[in-house]
Design a protein that fits this description.
The chain has a domain of about 50 residues. By secondary structure, the protein is an all-alpha fold. It has four helices and no strands. It is elongated, with a radius of gyration of 24 Å. About 65% of the residues lie in helices and about 0% in strands. The relative contact order is 0.09. It starts with 7 loop residues before the first helix and ends with a helix.
Length: about 80
Amino acid sequence: MAEEKSSPEESKTKPQSPEEAKQETKDDAPPKKKKINRMTLAEVEEQLKHVQETQGGLDSLYAKHLLQRKAYLLQNQQSSKK
């Protein structure tokens, strides 16, 4: 039988320590959703468009909270202009 040669890629894949494995899984995870009370007006409007498209309307609790945040931000924007 012929000997198998190890490629350079195989030599790079060493067994990882548990700490390195944890770090890698953290990097691979999708970003967390941003809390509504930390969103800007542009982010809220973007999420409202996304919710409208995916859920077919604005009847969900998430959409209602986004609408409340939008109203709050608009109110603060108007009061700061005065």
